[in-house]
Amino acid sequence: MQRIAERHERETIRIREREEPRSVVVDNRLTWYSGPRPKDRCWPALEDLLRDSGWSDKSLEDLDGASTKVVSLLSHPRERTFSTKGLVVGYVQSGKTTNFTAVTAKAADRGYKLFIVLAGIHNGLRRQTQLRLVEQLVKPNPSRWHQLTDPDKDFTPPANAASYLADSSKQYVLCVIKKNPRVLEKFSAWLETASEYLADCPALIIDDEADQATVATETINPLIIEILGRLPKSAYVGYTATPFANLLIDPSAKNLYPEHFIVNLPKPQGHFGTEVLFGRDVMDGEDPEHVFDGYDMIREVPDSEVDLVRPSSRADAESFHPVMTESLRTAVRYFWLSTAARRVRNTGNPHSTMLVHTSVNTAVHNSFERPLTKLRDDNELLLRAGDARLLDELRELWEKETSRVPAGLFGEHPVLFEELEPLLPGVLRDCRIIMDNSGSKDRLDYENGPVVAIAVGGNTLSRGLTLEGLAVSFFVRSVSAYDTLLQMGRWFGFRNGYADLPRIWMTDELRDWFRHIATVESEMRRDIDVYMVEDRTPMTFAVRLRTHPSLRVTAAAKMTNAVPSASAYGGKRVQTRYFHTDHEWLAANQAAARKLVENAALEGSPDASVTDGNHLVRGVPHDLVTDFLREYQFDARSQECDSKLLTEYIAKRIDKSGALRRWNIALIGGAAGKDSDPKAFTFADDFTVRMVTRSALEGDDPTSVDIKTLMSRRDAAIDLDISSVRGELTEQMIFALRTRQSPETALLALYAIDKDSQPKESKAETRVPRRALNAAADVIGVGLVFPAPSTTDSTVEWQYVATNLSKVRIEEEDLSALDAVDD
Length: 823
Known about the structure:
The protein is an alpha/beta fold. The chain is built from 23 helices and 30 strands.
């Protein structure tokens, strides 16, 4: 007995200290679950099913570990009463359903009896979820499960609730319901009729898409809380890839804040997420050169075409007729080509889908049917006739796309045009044009053989629903919140067998928004990881969410408890990466830089030991720096480079500890040219440098460009003695050297960037293409390196920012399905 107890203790400690998935847990929470047992029935059956379907041993091991972690954070089903609330954060289209299926299986094996899955607000997702759970839980053990719902029918109260909920060994009850007021009211009333049996009925409530409808809704939120109140033993676990709303709930209110635990699921191997496709910004302590730019898979929808594929106002929606624009035609043709290439490979997902999402309005969806059908029929006739012009255009498109994203980069087999050409007529013959919305009868159906479909839709395709074999997306819809935008990215997920083929057509603005959200995601997940290490709890920390000038974090109603967060610059490297390109803006920044250098040369001490085309002035008074920061105009997208925040921080550090009174000012010169000397820029007498070149990321707004990286590690250490460094100079080394050598003095580095900067040769398959800077005048870049504080740092508050959206057509998430009468 002693050995069994010791083994259990070792296992629970192993689970609590498991690195993945990361989690933040309330104090002194008992870890009772130590993993599957030999006599279990549900989890082993699920594991066998997944293995037979092709899951690798490593993937199964990861799923086992992650689901065990979640179950271990639930309350023991034999506790007298409990009410657990937790949140599991995954990635869009990353296998969250499989995770909560595994959690359900393990919880059933250990004594939980009633399983309620809240599956979004649309019938499509509810049906898809029910089918998955029946296939993976019910069918392997049919005698052990009672179903209160089925794929075609939401909850209808059965008679004699006691026959389902009265205690009997190893009998489980499964209910998959929509977050619909009528359905939830019926379910709550049915539970009330069985109240005398619920004391011995431990219940697990899985809230899929937990940020949708659950938070800050007048009907759904109170009904979920009411259902939980009827269950003496309840564990509520929200699952979402966009937890922004859930993390802004008031923890002190009687609500669904995840007070007991937050689990951060790791990104599965092979998952295409926001960062993989769009890249992201640099976070604190990162080397910009090590931050991925994203794969070259995003294609531009010119602003001039937007009003041709989306009505410019709500009033125009009913009479709108889309135009088959050049970008839409190209996207559709590429979809057919990629589908044919996948048939050549004959591997991976048998389905092939294209998503067209331009509006939430069903009339707009329906208006696309005729032009898309005509394009398909016309092209099929031309292909069968062997039309040389069309074949040349298709060949050129295929060869251009496959050269930009080589198949070998993903370990895939390259497909030549000659190989796929014979299959194109069959692809077009099989291609269906489907309008998938709340009013359509012909919906996406992957249950009856391989599908090739162009799906036009809105909300029914934008939440939780998996678009099987999604290869191409055409997306121009404007939205106003992080979570809405991310959930519409149905292109996230797994692309086994065709990882080189996905493409997304969207506007440059949307591309920039997704890149920003990739940064927000990474920071949020890092916060969870950091707080786990620091032994914080969901009730003692709040995750910070970076803001954006044109986007809300989530819907306004869900942000009523949001407050400005705090940030600090101590020990950080901050640099400008976004710049306006108009002459007036650039000229003003040149004037501010020249004024700083002229005054610094008078009041500081030039360091003659700095060579190689660079200049350094030591001991510059802080007021010259703060005056410069107030005069220099930062692009609004460079949020860390905010004049007000920077100057406030400097003032607080000076007031608190006397640090940052003196600064070192560096002028960073470019490398000497091979064929001809680079241009020179003069900041002041005796302070001339070779100009540096920094090209812009392709597809960026020409009036506000993104260069990604300004400052190298060597630049960040220009005022330090690095003679003791052997090998590569790392960010950690720079931090340590500055702490020892310059603990109270910060560095400000200025760069003169050639307005005509051209992109250098790079590996196009691993980086987003670059283009010429094309600025109206030479650009001044700014980098700041702050020493770490010796005492508690002086934080500065970030404010939520908003731009004037009165002239921008924004479509909010449509929650009308909440009010629909469920038949």
